[in-house]
Amino acid sequence: MEDVLAEDIKDIITWYNNRIPVKSILSNIHAKFCERHEECHLNAKDISNIISANRNELLGELTPLQWLLKHLKEAGFNPKVDVNPQTKRLRRLFFAHPEALKLYRRNPDLLFIDSTYKTNRWSMPLLNIGGATNSNMTIQVAVCFLSEESEPDYDWAMEQLLNCITDQKVRQPRTIITDRELALINAIVKRFPFSKHILCQWHVSQNVCLKAKPHFPALKKPEKGKGPFVPNEKFLEFMDEWRQLLQSLTESEYERRLHAFETIGKYLYEAVRYAVGWLVWKEKLVRCFKNVYGGLVFDSSEWRILGELPSRFKLLLAVVLAVFSSVLSARV
């Protein structure tokens, strides 16, 4: 590879760090050689070797995990690690950006906690921990890679979160919002006994939508077969009435709307039964009951914040995962 210039190697590493596939990197390099009127003999294996050599140079004598932890510490992320004592492999990784913690200190009333999937090839769930300012801005307070969605894993994450905000002299949140992940809820109740836990209306409504839709007539095409498919009007009415039920401001309004929602023959019984089944959690879900029990209340549009958290976290996750693609499988 004596015909590869230093600037070519720099470009290859830059493209790789921007998550451009090796095949595309190779095409770009061939294009650069053509511009210089030179013949390029590089293949995909050569590109991989250049990336690997740069990786080894960055690591020095450190393992990938040691390298990542070193840089997280230097950046002030204060990472916490749990390692399997037998295999010496990473089981859990928690870290929080110092600037995010400063912002959260000024807005400590609320935390959103939600898991995302398929963020890495080891299928380690990623627990997103976020907050919100009074201007409806999302704060990414912390993230935590877990080995599985079990109560011990969630308990470890909540313990690290509690230690983190305690060290930063931030008071515990007034309200914590999650989906209905029972293991996570149990961990929250254990570590944050004075915080009010409520369910995310957006996540619940998404579940109701998914389960109820098959019980309504199939989607129909608009006239002349042009344009997108449109949902059944009865289904839209069903979902609108369900959302209004969750937004009931008083118990009497809730009872009246529930009675109307359950009217025999109005909607298919199976769809209504599934939706109403969620109301065993009404103290954590319906607006009037959350008011009584001290939870923070949001307008329906603001509940979408939690649903949008995974996409808002992608930028930081891309940076972290691109720092070293194999870190999660590395030995200490």
Question: Can you offer a commentary on this structure?
Answer:
The C terminus is likely disordered. Helix 6 runs parallel beside helix 7 and helix 9 runs antiparallel to helix 10. A seven-stranded mixed sheet has the order 1-2-5-4-3-6-7. The protein is an alpha/beta fold and about 325 residues long. It contains 14 helices and seven strands. The radius of gyration is 25 Å and the shape is extended. The longest helix is centred in the last third of the chain and has 20 residues. The two termini are about 35 Å apart.
Short description:
This protein is an alpha/beta fold. The chain contains 14 helices and seven strands.
What is the fold's blueprint, element by element?
Elements: H1 6-17, H2 22-35, H3 44-59, H4 64-74, E1 80-83, E2 90-95, H5 98-106, E3 110-116, E4 126-132, E5 138-145, H6 151-167, E6 175-178, H7 182-191, E7 196-199, H8 201-212, H9 233-246, H10 251-261, H11 269-277, H12 282-285, H13 287-292, H14 304-323
Parallel strand pairs: 3-6, 6-7
Antiparallel strand pairs: 1-2, 2-5, 3-4, 4-5
Helix pairs in contact: 1-2, 1-3, 6-7, 8-9, 9-10
| End-to-end Cα distance | 33 Å
Largest sheet: 7 strands, mixed
As a percent range, the share of helical residues equals: 40-55%
The tally of helices reads 14
Kindly state the number of beta strands. 7
> Structural class, judged by helices and strands?
alpha/beta
Order of helices and strands: HHHHEEHEEEHEHEHHHHHHH
Assess the beta-strand content as a share of residues.
5-15%
